[in-house]
């Protein structure tokens, strides 16, 4: 087992608890021993970074410091936004000794261990898409997803900026496709898989956000997908919960509603193939029912 500090972030602790339960249940099957971080807070999403950049840096340095204190060299995330924020803060701290010392002085003042830069932030996707994690995934996905067509949706903040993320080509990603195929599913390819889900602007410009949201759902439907899978809980929230909002807008415009498109978290996709229990997958928490997909698996 590879021990990793586990940062679940806000959504997996609250409105997307199914992501946390499925990740925790799946981790041992792909060779990961999760070390929970009990004293950490939100990474700040994009809001604090824009409004209070120094506060954002300290907030993320605190998370990195607690991860380092576990003794692991890896901080595992399950959210695109958390991954970008933590990798960006880590990049800044490792590249500037004076900045790191100033931040550590402030961390010590509030009882937080200093951060030396011995941790690397990695998304769960990266840990299971390549290397030993991928080999264990293939061995664990014995139940399989045969006959199920899955459309991958990366979102934006796990691919860009590539200087900070760097796991794969942001224009030609491959990791989700590789995992879908290893789980026995059929990949549905489509252009919008690397676009934004619209989440960052839903409060300020709802029409624009829904315009972003409709593209992956429409294209996945056109490609014959049974479901969409995403590695980001914010993307999941947009794609799953806002389909009703999207169809309400279409009805107002006199356009036929879209057919329901089930949305899966990455850990749920692998978890289904690995035979996790319903109590661990918690599909009942989704807005769009997963029942059609699960029924197709039993045929």
Topology:
Blueprint: E1 2-7, H1 17-26, E2 32-36, H2 47-51, H3 53-69, E3 74-77, H4 80-95, H5 97-109, E4 120-123, H6 124-129, H7 131-140, E5 149-152, H8 175-182, E6 186-187, H9 206-222, E7 227-230, H10 233-241, H11 243-252, E8 263-265, H12 266-274, H13 278-281, H14 291-298
Parallel strand pairs: 1-2, 1-3, 3-4, 5-6, 5-7, 7-8
Helix pairs in contact: 1-12, 3-4, 3-5, 4-5
Description:
This protein has helices spanning 17-26, 47-51, 53-69, 80-95, 97-109, 124-129, 131-140, 175-182, 206-222, 233-241, 243-252, 266-274, 278-281, 291-298; strands spanning 2-7, 32-36, 74-77, 120-123, 149-152, 186-187, 227-230, 263-265. It is α/β, with parallel strands linked by helices. The chain folds into two domains: 2-124, Glutathione S-transferase Yfyf (Class Pi), Chain A, domain 2 (Up-down Bundle); 125-298, 3-Layer(aba) Sandwich (Rossmann fold). The strands form two sheets. The chain has a four-stranded parallel beta sheet with strand order 2-1-3-4. Helix 1 packs across helix 12 (266-274), helix 3 crosses helix 4 (80-95) and helix 4 packs across helix 5. The radius of gyration is 19 Å and the shape is globular.
């Amino acid at each position: 087992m590879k021990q990793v500090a586990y940062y679940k972030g806000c959504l997996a602790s609250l409105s997307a608890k199914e992501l946390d339960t499925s990740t925790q249940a799946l981790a041992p099957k792909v060779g990961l021993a999760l070390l929970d971080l009990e004293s950490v807070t939100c990474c700040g999403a994009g809001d604090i970074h824009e409004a209070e950049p120094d506060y954002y840096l300290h907030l993320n340095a605190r998370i990195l410091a607690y991860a380092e204190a576990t003794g692991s060299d890896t901080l595992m995330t399950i959210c695109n936004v958390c991954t970008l924020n933590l990798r960006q803060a880590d990049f800044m701290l490792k590249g500037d000794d004076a900045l790191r010392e100033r931040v550590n002085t402030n961390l010590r003042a509030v009882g937080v261990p200093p951060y030396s830069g011995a941790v690397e932030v990695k998304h769960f996707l990266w840990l299971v898409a390549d290397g030993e994690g991928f080999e264990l995934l293939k061995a664990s996905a014995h139940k399989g997803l045969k006959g199920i067509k899955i459309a991958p949706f990366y979102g934006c903040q796990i691919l860009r900026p590539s200087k900070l993320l760097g796991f794969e080509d942001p224009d030609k990603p491959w990791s989700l496709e590789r995992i879908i195929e290893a789980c026995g599913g059929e990949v549905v390819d489509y252009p919008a898989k690397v676009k934004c889900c619209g989440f960052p602007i839903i409060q300020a410009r709802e029409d624009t956000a829904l315009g972003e949201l409709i593209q992956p759902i429409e294209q996945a439907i056109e490609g014959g997908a049974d479901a969409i899978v995403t590695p980001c809980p914010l993307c999941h929230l947009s794609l799953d919960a806002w389909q009703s909002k999207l169809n309400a807008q279409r009805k107002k415009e006199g356009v036929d509603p879209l057919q329901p498109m089930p949305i899966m978290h990455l850990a749920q996709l692998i978890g289904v193939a690995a035979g996790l229990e319903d109590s661990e997958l918690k599909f009942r928490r989704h807005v769009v029912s997963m029942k059609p997909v699960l029924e197709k698996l039993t045929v």
